[in-house]
Design goal:
280 residues, alpha/beta, Rossmann fold, 10 helices, 39% helix
Length: 280
């Protein structure tokens, strides 16, 4: 069993980017009355205590969500995210992607939450006990995504954010997304990935493979906050979105300058939004 526990990293800059994208995508789906499904392939515990030994050991939330909460942001979408997360932060907690989905989804929508870590799935089940439209699954998220595709209803969002502890995660992700997309071409696939030191970075190969999926529109978002080291460290993160909804990119373009300004402490920090493939 792998050792990754997200409690060490809850609320860091990567979470902020990931959860902002998640919020925008879920809000887009909720613009229509029709029900949709939310699938989380690597759910973790779903909700995190920032006073825990894990969070205090790294303190990564201090350079992530806490910086954003202290910033005087004006973008309406940034302010919506800040308002939502601040409710938890006041209680020394941070909402993971399943908890954000619980807040943003409606009663007619379905949450399918997968987690493979033995301890984390128990925490996930405890945190979602009694949530009628949420279903937890103790299973490999890559395998589960393929098995659930296409879901009913066929409107929906998949969030994929594995630990990338193993180099094989990159290829397993590509294989799972390709197979799932074959079965579910209308789904929105949001894939978080780390930007790592040069010797460890496998992200470019992965994004190229996903951009090659026939018929898919693919938007790549990157937030780079530190210099890229040669041997160790995460200098930023990215979100690859397959089948992004209309104006999702416009919303991100509007908020990214303020987000960067709130999180950066290096003069070379930057962001970029690139369409890797886009239908005319």
């Amino acid at each position: 069993m792998f050792s990754y526990r997200h409690g060490y990293h809850a609320g860091n800059h990567a979470d902020v980017l990931k959860h902002l994208c998640q919020m925008l995508l879920l809000n887009k789906l909720a613009e229509k009355d029709k029900a949709f499904v939310y699938i989380d392939t690597h759910s973790g515990a779903g909700l995190y205590d920032l006073t825990s030994a894990q969070a205090q050991k790294t303190g990564e939330y201090k350079d992530g969500i806490d910086r954003l909460l202290d910033a005087n942001c004006q973008d309406s979408n940034l302010r919506s995210y800040i308002k939502l997360v601040d409710e938890y932060r006041r209680d020394n907690r941070y909402p993971g992607s399943p908890e954000l989905a619980r807040r943003l989804c409606r009663s007619q929508d379905s949450l399918q939450l997968m987690e493979w870590h033995n301890n984390e799935v128990q925490n996930l089940r405890a945190n979602f006990k009694g949530v009628r439209n949420a279903h937890t699954h103790h299973r490999n998220g890559f395998e589960g995504l393929v098995a659930m595709s296409p879901p009913k209803p066929a409107r929906g969002l998949v969030l994929i954010d594995p630990s990338y502890e193993l180099e094989a995660d990159y290829q397993e992700l590509v294989s799972a997304v390709k197979e799932s997309y074959k079965r579910w071409k209308t789904g929105i696939f949001a894939i978080w990935y780390p930007l790592l030191a040069k010797s460890r970075d496998r992200s470019e190969k992965m994004t190229k493979a996903l951009a090659a999926i026939q018929g898919a529109d693919v938007l790549d978002i990157q937030l780079k906050l530190h210099p890229q080291e040669q041997d160790v460290g995460m200098y930023g993160s990215g979100m690859l979105v397959i089948n992004p909804p209309w104006q999702f990119d416009t919303q991100l373009e509007a908020l990214m300058p303020e987000l960067l300004n709130a999180l950066k402490d290096w003069p070379g920090a930057s962001y970029q939004l690139n369409w890797l493939t886009r239908s005319e």
